[in-house]
Amino acid sequence: MAKILLIRTFRELGAGGPVPPLGLLYIAASMRAASAGHEIRIFDTGVDSDLETLLASWKPDIAGISSLNCEAELFHSVAGMAKRHGAAVWAGGPYASTATDSVMADKNVDLAILGEGEATAAELITAFGKDTPLSGINGLALRCPDGVYRTPARRLATNLDAIPRPAWNLINFRRYGKYANWNGLCKRDFYLTVLTSRGCPFGCTFCHNLLGKKFRPRSARDVADEILALHEKFGAREFHIIDDVFNCDKSRVLEISRLLRASGKKLDFAFPNGLRADILDEETTAALRAMGTYKVNLAIESATPRLQEMSGKRMDIGRAEAAIAAADRHGIQTAGYFMLGFPTETEAEMRATIDYAARSRFDSAYFFKVTAFPGSGLYSQILDSGKRPDGIGDAACFQARDASVADIDTATLNRLLLEAQTAFYLKPGRLWRLLRKAPRPLAALRGLLQLVARLCAASILLKTAASADSGNKH
């Protein structure tokens, strides 16, 4: 039987601290269901330390590494470390799926699992140690004597209820509660993440296509049963839903809410991802609140109709504003996601988005540089135009380094990102709006004071740099 070490690499981006490695928990569960007897451990570089000591002492047969594109450097470092200690190195996650050539160019990598990985990993572990040719397993990139061979793509799962539930007993999930993430402050001491659907039918060019463009939901009953089972088994009372578009099917949302309310359990929910604003109506919002939702994050991206159309987002801003107002009426805290720096976007259009955000009823907001991730439509568009997508995989709210796909200079974009945060958070009444609905007001106040201090410091640095640049020109 094999000793399998599943490794999640982690790089901090803005306010996003480590969250439970749900993808690896799904992979581990599928491996265990397919072939009993293997010893599986999970190592998360965001919360665990001394990977090399573990590799040297435990000596796993297989090291499966899941990484984001922005963690490419860390991925290759870990792959080399694992190979030095004699492990077969299997790659997975977004980096392996969208930049397969770069991953397989690393001689330390033996194979890559491409796309949705549960069924592929299950077949791999069943074949491990046998004479079964791996070329017969779909969804792989394999290292062969004459190069890299890709097997046929694996079809996406159609019955998500049949996928084994995440192996939460393999990690100390309570540790993640102490880290900040895109949800901001949590209501409870710890939380568990839940994925209730896969795929998104909307055509945003800047988004990934790892899970397909068709909405594939789990049944309402299966979702409610999982949440209630996690509450009973682990004492979890807070859950973060991380779908691409949880509310794609309104009737399913209403049924999930009904089932959870019928259980009589007092649970809390947040949506750091997963809700589309312009299809979030009053009835759905009320159902979310009734089941215990205390915060939702809504992605607006741009206030400019031209960029909404060009990016494929096609957000109905009027309906989105109604959704924000409904959440506010129901006492749900809201956060907005905005993007600056689309190709061809003018400074005036960026300022229109900044002004919209500052005027909005959002309680908090995040401002990102537009990023061209490999495999996205935006990435292909930029390559087709003859340009190179700089800053691949970087999604920090504010970063000084020269990374941008915008047509304006990076220094101006950095300044606008800072101005956006300042305009939003220093607007009169904003801090009170946020504090009155925050789950932990005192902790929220400390965080806001720290944010204001960082904004002031960054503003001074930018003004100093601008003055120096102006002096050099004269």
Structure in words:
The chain has 474 residues and is an alpha/beta fold. The chain folds into two domains: 3-150, Response regulator (Rossmann fold); 182-440, Alpha-Beta Barrel (TIM Barrel), CATH 3.20.20.70. The protein is 40% helix and 16% strand. It is built from 16 helices and 15 strands. It has helices at 22-34, 51-58, 72-84, 93-98, 100-104, 118-127, 220-234, 250-262, 282-290, 305-311, 317-329, 347-359, 377-384, 410-425, 430-437, 441-473, and strands spanning 3-8, 39-44, 62-66, 88-92, 111-113, 140-144, 147-150, 192-194, 197-198, 216-217, 238-241, 268-275, 293-301, 333-340, 364-369. The strands form three sheets. It has a seven-stranded mixed sheet with strand order 2-1-3-4-5-6-7, with helices on both faces. A six-stranded parallel sheet has the order 8-11-12-13-14-15. It has a two-stranded antiparallel ribbon with strand order 9-10. Strand 6 and strand 7 (147-150) form a beta hairpin. Helix 1 packs across helix 6 and helix 12 runs parallel beside helix 14 (410-425). The longest helix has 33 residues, at 441-473. The radius of gyration is 23 Å and the shape is globular. Residues 391-401 have low confidence and may be disordered.
Give short descriptive properties of this protein.
single chain; 474 residues; alpha/beta; Rossmann fold; TIM Barrel; 2 domains; 7-stranded mixed sheet; 6-stranded parallel sheet; 15 strands; 40% helix; globular
Write the layout of secondary structure elements.
Layout: E1 3-8, H1 22-34, E2 39-44, H2 51-58, E3 62-66, H3 72-84, E4 88-92, H4 93-98, H5 100-104, E5 111-113, H6 118-127, E6 140-144, E7 147-150, E8 192-194, E9 197-198, E10 216-217, H7 220-234, E11 238-241, H8 250-262, E12 268-275, H9 282-290, E13 293-301, H10 305-311, H11 317-329, E14 333-340, H12 347-359, E15 364-369, H13 377-384, H14 410-425, H15 430-437, H16 441-473
Parallel strand pairs: 1-2, 1-3, 3-4, 4-5, 8-11, 11-12, 12-13, 13-14, 14-15
Antiparallel strand pairs: 5-6, 6-7, 9-10
